Structure formats: C-alpha cells, structure tokens
Fold:
Amino acid sequence: MGNSHDIDYQLLGDDMQLVTIELDPQESVVAEAGTMMMMDAGIHMDTIFGDGSQENEGLGSKLLGAGKRLLTGERLFMTIFTNQGQGKQTVSFAAAFPGKIIPLDLSTMGGEILCQKNSFLCAAKGVGISLGFTKRLGAGFFGGEGFILQKLVGDGLAFAHAGGTIVRRELAAGEQIKVDTGCLVALTGSVSYDITLAKGIKTMLFGGEGLFLATLEGPGTVWLQSLPFSRLASNVFAAIPPDQIRSTQTQGEGSVLGHLGSVLAGDRGF
Structure:
C-alpha cells in the first residue's frame, strides 16, 4: 500500500500535547471520531466506513473493516478531514487524556506499525488501518489490553498517543524485553510479540503487577509509555471515597441538575 497524502505537522504542548496538521488543497487526514480539536474554515469533515485508503473499495469490504474495528473496542466510523479551500488549511487533534503524541513515519519503518488499540490518533489518507493479531492463539485469550492491536500499513505519517514518559527502544536481532501489556504503545512489524504468564503464584497475586507480560523480540523499534490510562484511571477511582462515587452516579457528569441531584440524594452541601 502506498501513495499516502504528504502532510506536514507541528506538535504543540508538553504533557498535554496536540498535533496540528497542515493540508494542501485536496489533501486529507483520517482520525478517530471525537479527536478533532479545531480546524480552519476550508476543511471539510465527513464520516466514513473504513480508513479511506482504497478509493474503489466496495461496501462489503468497508463493512468488514468497520466490523474489525469494533473488535478492537473502537468506534464503527472514522472521520476524514479534507482541505477543500484555497491554499493551505490546518486541522488539530488531541487525545482524551494527558500525554504525548508520537509521530510515526511508516515510509522509514518498513511500511508497517502495530499499535495499542486506544493509542491511534490520526494518519494521512492512504494509510491502511486494520486489525492486527499476535502469532500465538494463547495471547488472544490472556493478553488483556495488550492483545488486540491496530495495524497501520502504508508509506505516510501516522500519530499515536501515549501517557507519561515515552521510551523508544531499539532492539537488536534476538534481543528480548518483557513489559506490562498496558505499557506497550507501538512496535514495528519486524518485532516478534507474544504474551507470557508471570512466574510464581505470589508474584501474580501479591506483586502488584499484571498476570501477563508482553515479550518483545527484535530486530525492530518499540515505543513504551510509563503511565497507561488504565493504570491512571484505576488509581484515581480507588482514591475516591464510596460516598462520593454514589453522589457522582446520582448527579451525572456535567449534569444541569447536579445540585438538584445532591439535594435529592440528601447532600445539602453546595
């Protein structure tokens, strides 16, 4: 797969980054629904099945691609942004939680990247976005958030989002590392990937780590994140007193009836 649109970009921010993409007339970028932050007036936004990489793709193929996206936990539709104005136009994207954005130039990385199901942000039109599996069936049953990956194929730019500090690790041929499945962000297609069970029942039950680890073997490049969103969310949720959780469930986030919900729930504080 080739001939991806040649887009320019700029990363803004530090720990809460966004990416601004500059499009020439008729150039396009494809993104996950709900990630757009702002765009110039000349940008046209449309909802599509599939990734738009195949112009003549039939309805059946588009539905199959959309169905595969549902398996990854992503939305059924994607959004395509096209410059239909005069001159250069920009569109900006940001993720739903704090973190950094990783530019991935597929043309310099063997034309294939595997990334965590929730890390993909956007890509130049022409980059194929599909479902990627590990080679061993056992990983499918036990891999947790590290099992189902999205495969990015082509010769264009793609962008992934990750939390905390980003570590880029170059693995030599035969070199192995083991990582928490949630800390894996992306890897090049040349890296072998499998799931292994953490050794020792005490380690699994009391070690504070996950039951399963991702074993990565080079050659190739691996990107890791120090703070997966799942870990952040679980720690925040664990720190919330139970009575506040019940109050939040009663009110609903951003509800215009929030104070009324507190009164009905017996909470008189304002």
Observations:
- The CA atoms of residues 142 and 212 lie 7 Å apart.
- Confidence is low (pLDDT under 50) at residues 135-146, 250-270.
- Residues 59-71 form the longest helix (13 residues).
- The first strand starts at residue 8 and ends at 12.
